[in-house]
Amino acid sequence: MKWSYAPLPRTDLHTHSEFSKCSIDTTICGNIIMAILNGLEAIAITDHASHVLKIGFEKYIEKILTLRESNSTDLKVLMGLEVDIKPDGEPNVGRGLLKKLDIVVGALHSLPYGGFSAESYRTIILKALKSNWIDILAHPTYVNERNINLPIELIYEICEEARENSIAIELNSNHKSPSDEFIRVCVETGVKLTPVSDGHALGSIGVYSWQLQTLKRLNVLNSVKWLTIDDLQKIKNRGVA
Known about the structure:
Helix content is 34%, strand content 17%. With 241 residues, the protein is an alpha/beta fold. The protein has a single domain, classed as Metal-dependent hydrolases (TIM Barrel, Alpha-Beta Barrel). Helix 5 (118-129) packs parallel to helix 6 (152-164) and helix 6 (152-164) crosses helix 7. It starts with 10 loop residues before the first strand and ends in a 9-residue tail after the last helix.
């Protein structure tokens, strides 16, 4: 199938399913079908860890593994979670659980005490990036349910720390994050990027119009260092192939 978003990689490594209470109509099975129809080579199911634990982690694993094994196409189906970053930079679930996953998306959804403080954000994010549990950093300029502006020197710190720790940064069409300035620094510093839908609706899976248009507008489309299919084999949390 022709890929509509070349040269972006044919991957969607941040999607939600019926195991996330914020899902509109996504399901593990539906996401896989949409990935196949849209010509993806890999999809990750990355439901919110806190939601999955309430329903049952073993049930979650079993369903993904069952559908992965029944998939007769070349699509790679990865088992993951979107895990909240706590104020100390640690995941909001045990690290032993994370070792059972193929991929971990780390997200800072809110800051302590509400509001936004660049210094508080800096402390938490940098601790997390140095803590060896994140594979992909989620929507870095979307916190407290709004887009935020970060000081340019902090953006450089984040990108350089992510690059040094082999952590990719997502281009998230659901939240239109990161910002233009952040994307430019990602390209300049050479940190790997990955397009994601952060899909809560089936129609969004593997749809990258925002990413493609943004990169063209910033004139950096051909300068991006992408997280590739080959890179997925090297991710520290990767489990069963």
